[in-house]
Every structure is written in structure tokens, then in C-alpha cells.
């Protein structure tokens, strides 16, 4: 669909949506912070414009400004938004309401929070028809049923009567799409429509939006942080940086040769384009016992089987990745390896020591050798601690209480060394994690994991909460540290591109089982299992990988 | 739902039994009682012989465990014992007073709910942020004024100065207005605070934003999105407010010199009439527990998530283990594949 | 990336880290003038309780038949009561009974509540089950009524009333502290500490206890106000402070018979109670808001 031409409808020429010189600010304290500066673009019927940018770039703000639904402290500072040649910014509220949902509709970013938890999903779609059509209740119900069929539901009446919590994330997003197209709008603003969804579900949702768009000739503004999605699904790409549109170009051209330096930097940061030497082929086996040896591991939560007989071996000095979608059991596996939850059955050997049935207390001496980096570093820091206390914790844990005072200076030096290893200056010692950016926090978490000189580090989704350019920096850091220190990584991730970039071996998990494992190049190159092939097929950004 | 209600009912009965036992234990720890006080009174005309008879009559000479067993047995037969000071049955005393207090608290509750609803809505939707801030500060102010002060001011203002309502209970509806207003203001404050906070929180929810993006106006959003979501915490608060109401009636009845449970409580406390105190606590606790039971039943009717929780729990006892971050929701239909 | 990504200040490696301190102390004072006012009101009330002599030379109990029921004046700021006692002096001296009472009540509530709540939250299993049921039972009795019942057992007096109010409120404290301990115990930072090798005693002392106590602070302040009101109410009913000792609720009760002719006898002590409670609640809200940040 890349480079798709608009459908040959008989509609009037000219842009269906145009934004001219748009500036938006937020009132913060006494001043105003400008979030969007002089942004202009035009969108023809049936076109898809992808607005990409990192957090804080202003991309979502543009979406809100087009609908004139800025948060309470937001304010239009200048510029106009026009729909079919008619200026709509600054219209009276009543007229704006008639346009919202009917002329321009929204597919919101979080399907869980974007549905009213205590109303049936059918009546939430029905809202659009009540607000914009004169249909009676029965006709509206029939129409909602049709819409539900359109978005791929089968048992439509049952779906109509369900509540959001009874639906999966992907199904909730389908409901929101049904509501967005209910009044047959000309423009859809899709604001991160797939964030938080599994890759296969994300591909299905994006396919659905694509399909509906093509049938109806609706134009789409696709707001996304994922350059892969943008490259796969749009006609035009707009790159935002700190509120400015730094590049606006046809997608193919943008992917081939971006004109702006920042765009190029972003594109080069995409995990699909990252390459670290000698990865993926399975490196020469190291000597000594295997770092991790897992045999027939099982974990039950009541009746629910989270991990269902998993076996794998991780050699010292390599990166072993466990990939899977939510609910596959990959995080539980990581938590068993780090002794945070006990296994129900099976054997785990770490560096030659059998820990399968060790209690939490008996596991403790091993913790100096096995550390973990969590997905959300901020939540893993005690809110009262500064960087020094956070990073020093693994050291203090193994020091007798009495000698703590004596060791204070030495601890401090080791913390500084760990921070430096994670490319943070010593001046961060007395900062509070709250004052740091997401990438800096993850560096602090890495420093904490390194300070006790462990041999194995479990990385639980270490970059999935980070912006793409920060992601690339952290991955490079992890790669460097592994080479310098001979670390063994167990990487838990849902992102196949990340796995491909820094792993040697990979295991694909589904429903608590490993469906396929082997060297990364083999598994990704010639998947033996259908599920692996599906996962690879759902990966966004294939356009980007080819250079 | 029925098994859930039954289970809650059984729980309520158990809680009542435990509360009764707790007060019984508290009150028997007391060294004195009305009879001993009368016997030990220097001016008493009772012979020690008469005293013993009296004590035996009330069962006060038996071991505590036996007293407790007897009290419980009598309770199951609807007998709350005898007042130590007047000799009449506790149930008849309370039965006479209860209607007065019930009418008063019901009116107070109605008034409080109306005021809280009005304040909550006005405090959230009034034009001009300064007006909203002013309206929102009322509940905080009211919550800082003791109810006896409110009562005295109402009594002074409406009865003595304006002469709008009678100062003593003449049995008319008008005489109820003052005390009901006092109770109403007392419970309106926390209710309005909770309601305002809930409205504010709900309006920040993304689904409200989405509803606006569909073209809904403020009124539509309130009726179809905000109101029901915001009423959930208010229902919980309402259950708690009834407890305040029962306790508040003690103070209010004292200020307005009205007959009722509150007046009986005070008399019983002043004469150390333990069976009556025990009876008052039991009957108030019953009312309080029942109202909270009602709130627990209404909650799942409004919130389908709680309903689902209840049904799930009936099917299977919850496991105490905490699943890993990405395994939090185990049983979801893989409908995704079916859909496309 | 999943929430509104523009409204908070930008974070990202490219963005400069936030300045460490926003604004000077003076600017903060100005911005929180109402907090300063509230703190001042409380401080004055505490000083009244500690050193009433600094604020009034008049005796709170000296009877002067010639001076009875005088309206407020330069000599008697709050007027005089039916026995000619200086009402301002009685309010100032009454602070001791009221504030000591509520301090005792809060102390009892926090102590008893913390022990039960922390045990339940930390130990879990049957201890938790038993404590939770106990809390349910105590909370099932309307609070003020339970306090009255305890007063019946303990006898009349400010300290007894304070103790009764404290015991009654301990269930609320226990429930909050249990929830906080549980939240902290299952939080990711505790998990991270365990993963980094911390002993369970270290986890308890360094992470769980401090992080559970901070949220209690706002309840302590709220409960302080509630305790003042409840003790005043008990005294008003004649179940708390006994004459002739001045206590704010008692003063209102004494004054109400002269409401028509001398309203200041009720209004002055009543306003004092309202001001102190309002100040306490305001501080509580301030603490709660700071915590959310």
C-alpha cells in the first residue's frame, strides 16, 4: 500500500484537511511552553500521512489540535486548521461538535482507557450514531451490528452487549475503530492506534484500518513513534522534532534518502538497522560450565500454567533471547532465573549450581552473580533514594552491617565506576531518579546491575519503554559492556528487531512453551515453526531493513 | 448474584455477632454497674439482702461467660434484656425511640445527598474557575465545623431569631427541619468532596476525551460517561456516611432536645445502664452493616467489572500467587485470530 | 509513549535534565501562602497549649460576679462568661485539653494501628486474615458510638475521651498501613532490592517501613482534626472534660444557654475549633498532593 494513489472518486479536488502554520502551547506555571511550532501540511482524500517523532515531539498535540480538543492548559497560539477548504479552528463549540466524529474522527491511543469501563461496548459505538444521525434505536442497533461485522467480529449481538474488560486489547481497538468509522468521516486521526498491542495483533489492527480506508477513501493521519509502522503504512511521512516539522516527504523517498539530519539519525536508530559484529550466528562456545541450564521448567499459578516445561542452555558470554507475546511466560521465566519466584517443577542450574529448589534465602548468595534490569527502571527505584543509594544497594546487601561505615568511600568509588561504565557522569550521584530522563534512568538501572560485578544479567524488556534513538544508545551500551566484561545476557523481549540486533541464540515462547530455538540467524532466516513465521511476518518496518 | 448476596448476608451476621461480643467484652470489663452503684450509694435504702436479690434478678452475680451465653440466647429470641434504671425491656425502649430517629436520619440523609449532588455538580461545571474554587471549598469548610456548633447556630438562627421553625419538638414536620438540616450538612460535606473528586478524576479519563472527539457535548458526556463512573465512590461513601449519621443523631438530638435513640444513649451512659448501651450499639451496628451490605450489592449492579470478579471468584477461589508482569491476565480468548 | 506525550515537560536523552530546585524558598512560601497560614494557626494553637501564660494574663477560673456576661472589649477580647471568667483566657487555656486530647488520640490510633496493620501486611497469611476481620468488626460499629461505649468503660475526662477516640480510629490507621505495607512489599523497587541481594530485614527497614509511613502522614493530620471535633463533641455531651476545666467543646456547651444575649460565648470557642481543624485539614491536603507528585 506504500505509495498508494488516492482512489478515483469524483470528489472535489483540493486537500480534505490542511493545517497551516499551526502553533500550540501549554500553560505551565506562569509561562507557556510551546509544544508545536509553525507546522503545516495538507492531506488529500484517501492519503495516509504518518506523523513520527519521539516523546515530547508534539505529534499527539497536533492530533488534538486538529480536533480542537486540547487539554485544559493547552492553547492554540497561531495558525489554522481547515477541513475541505473551510477554516474550522476557532469555530463555535456547537459547530465543532458537529464536525467531530462525523467529518474528522479519532482512533485513540490506549484501547483500555479509551472505553468507558462500565458501559456496553455496543452502546459506546452507538453514541456516534446518536450524535450524528437521526436514526431510531432499532436502526442504530442494526448499524452497530454492521459496523462490528466490518471490523471483523462474528457474534455481533454478543459483542454489542459485552463490557470492555471482557474483550482483549485488540478487540477493544476494533470497537474503537468501529466507532471512528461509524459516521463515515473523511479524515481519521489515528493516535498511536497500536501502542501496547502484541505485534501480531498490531499488524491485524493496522491491516483493518488500511482496508477500511481503501474502501471508503478516508484520509488518515497516523501518529506513531514507530518508524517501521510509518514506513509500511503511509503515503507521506512527517518527522517532528521538538514541535517542528523537520521533514515532510513521500514515504518511499523518505526511507530511501531522508534529507534532514535528524530524520536520518532516527532512521539509523531503528533496531532493524542496528548491527553489531558477530551477532546472530551463535559464537564459538566458551569453556567452563554453562551460565544457565534450564531443564523442564514449570510454573503454575493455581490452575493457570504460566511456564509449561521449558528447557534451554545459555553459554557464558553470549546473549540468549527469549521472545514471545504477552502471556507467553517469558517474564515468569526471567523471574524464576533471578530467584524472584520459585519454580513449580524442573531444574535450574546457574554457573554450575543447582538452584531449582532453593528457597529465596538460599538463593541469596548467588545474587551477586545474577542481576536483573527491569523494563520500567523508575518503578524499580525506591522513591526516596538518590542515584548513589540505588546503585550501591547490591554492594550494601553483601556487606556486614558493622563494616558499612568503613566501606562507604570504597562503595562510592565503585558506584562511580559503575556509573561511568554506563556512560553517566559522577555528578549524577546525588541526583534523584525523578530528575532524570528515561534513558538516563535505564543507565542507572544498568549501573546497579553491574556494580556487584555479576556474570549473568537478565534483561527484562530493557528498551521497550524508550524512544528509538535512546533505544539504540542503550543497546549499543549493552553490547559494549558484554564485550568488555564477558557478561552473559538473558534478554526477555517482545521485539524481534531488538532480539536480532544483539542476540546470539533465541527461544520463541508461546503459551508457556518454547516452540522453536536456535541461533538467531537460523531461526529468523528459516523459521521452522508457523508461529515464528507469523511473528516475523507481523514485524513492522521491513521496508527499513533493506538499505 | 444470589449466592454472592447470601454470602454477604452470612458475613454481615457474623460481623454483627463479633461486634456484639466485642461490646459485651468491653462493657463487662467495667467495674461498676447501675445496680452496684445504687447499692453502694451512701443514701441507699436497699438492704444488702435486697441488693443480692436485685443482682441475682439481673444475672449480675453469675460468671461472665454464663452471662454472655444467656445474653446471646436471649438475643436469639429477640430479647435484649432489661434496663437497669427503669426496669422496662430494652427492646420496648428502643422500639419506642427508633421511629423518631429513623425519620430524622432519613430526612437528614435525603437532604445531605441532595446538597452533595448539587455542590458536586456545581463545583465541577459552574462557569469561571473562581466560582468553582469557591463552591469546592464549601465542603472542606463544613467538614471542619463540629455538628453541635452547626446545630446550635441553626437553632439560634431559625428558631430563636427568625422564628421560622419550632425550637422544641412539637411533633410537626417543621420541627424536624432544624435537626435534619444539621445532620444533612454534616454528611453532605464528605459526600460532596468525594463526588467532586470523582467527577474531576473521571473527566480526566481518556474515554471522556474520546467521547468528546465523537462530537459529544458537555451535557452528553456527563449523562452518559461521567455520572455513573463518578457515583461509584459516592456509593461507598454513602455507606460510611450512614455511620456518621447514626452517631450524629446523638449530638443532634441532644442539641434540639428531641426524643430518640440518641437521647436514650445519653441517659443510659449517664446512669451506667449497660444493657441499654449494649442494645443501642447492637441496633446501630445492625443498621450500619445493613446499609453497607446494600452498598456492596449496588456496586456490582453498576460496575460490570466487580460483577465479573464476583462470578469469577465463585467459580474458583483466587490463588494467592502473583503472576508475572506479562501474565497478569491469564484467560483471554484468542479472538484476534478469528477476527480477520 | 503510551500516554499523552506532550503535556508533561519533555523527557528524553536529548532534553536537558530538569533543574534540581524549582524556585527559591521565598517563592515557594508565596505560592503556598495558605499552607503557611494553616501552619501558623496550628503553631499558635500549640503555643496556647504549651504556654498559655504568654498570651493571656487573666486566670481562666477566677470568678468575678461583678464582671459577668460582658461583651468583647479591650480587656476581655472574647467577653466574660456567666461567672465573670475571661472567655479568651478560657479558650487559650482550653487549647491544652483539646490539643493534648487529640494528640493522645492520634498517638494511640497510630501506634495501635501501625502495629496491627504492619503485622498484617508484612506477615500475611492467617495473621492478615485475623487482623482484617478484627478491623472489619471495629469499623462495623459506628465510630462515635464506639467511642461513647469506651468512655462508659473508662469514665469521663479528656484523657479517657482521647483514648476512646484513639482506639476507635486505630482500625482506620491499621487498614491504611496494611494497604501501604502490602503495596510497598509487592512493589517493583522491593523486588529489585531482593533481586540485588538485600536481606529481608534490610528490605523491611530500608524500603517498606519508610515508604509506608509517608502516606500515613496525611491521615494523621486529618485524624488530628477529627479527634478535636470528636473530643469536643464528647465534652459537649458531658462525657469528656469536666467543669470547671476549660475545653473548647465544654465552653460551647456552657455558652449555649446565653446564646440569645451573649452569642460570642459560643461563637468564639466554636470559631477556634473550626480554625484549628480547617488548618489541619488544609495541611493534610497539602501533604497528600505533594505525595502524588
Number of strands of chain B: 0
The name of the CATH superfamily of the domain at 98-259 in chain B reads MetI-like
- CATH level 4 superfamily of the largest domain in chain A: P-loop containing nucleotide triphosphate hydrolases
Helix content of chain B: over 70%
End-to-end separation of chain B: 36 Å
Order of helices and strands of chain B: HHHHHHHHHHHHHH
CATH class of the largest domain in chain A: Alpha Beta
Which two chains form the greatest contact, residue counts included? A-B, 63 and 43 residues
Overall tally of structural domains of chain A: 3
The oligomeric state is heterotrimer
Q: Unreliable stretches of chain B, pLDDT < 50, 5 or more residues?
A: 316-340
Keywords (chain A): ATP-binding, Nucleotide-binding, Transport
Pfam family, one (chain A): ABC_tran
Domain ABC transporter (chain A): 17-267, 292-536
GO molecular function (chain A): ATP binding; ATP hydrolysis activity
Provide the fold topology:
The complex is a heterotrimer of chains A (547), B (340) and C (293).
Chain A lengths: L16 E12 L2 E13 L4 E5 L6 H8 L7 E10 L2 E2 L5 H7 L4 E4 L13 H12 L4 H14 L5 H6 L7 H13 L5 E5 L7 H18 L2 E6 L2 H7 L2 E6 L2 E7 H6 L4 H9 L22 E10 L2 E11 L4 E5 L6 H8 L7 E6 L2 E2 L5 H4 L6 E4 L13 H11 L10 H14 L16 H13 L5 E5 L7 H18 L2 E6 L2 H7 L2 E6 L2 E7 H6 L4 H9 L3 H4 L2
Parallel strand pairs in A: 3-8, 3-9, 6-7, 7-8, 13-18, 13-19, 16-17, 17-18
Antiparallel strand pairs in A: 1-2, 1-4, 4-5, 9-10, 11-12, 11-14, 14-15, 19-20
Chain B lengths: L1 H27 L5 H7 L7 H11 L5 H13 L13 H36 L3 H14 L4 H15 L12 H30 L2 H8 L4 H38 L5 H10 L3 H29 L1 H12 L19 H5 L1
Helix pairs in contact in B: 1-12, 5-6, 5-8, 5-10, 5-12, 6-8, 7-8, 7-10, 8-10, 9-10, 10-11, 10-12, 11-12, 12-13
Chain C lengths: L24 H7 L1 H18 L36 H37 L1 H16 L2 H12 L3 H28 L2 H8 L4 H37 L11 H8 L8 H29 L1
Helix pairs in contact in C: 1-2, 2-3, 2-10, 3-4, 3-6, 3-8, 4-6, 5-6, 6-8, 7-8, 8-9, 8-10, 9-10
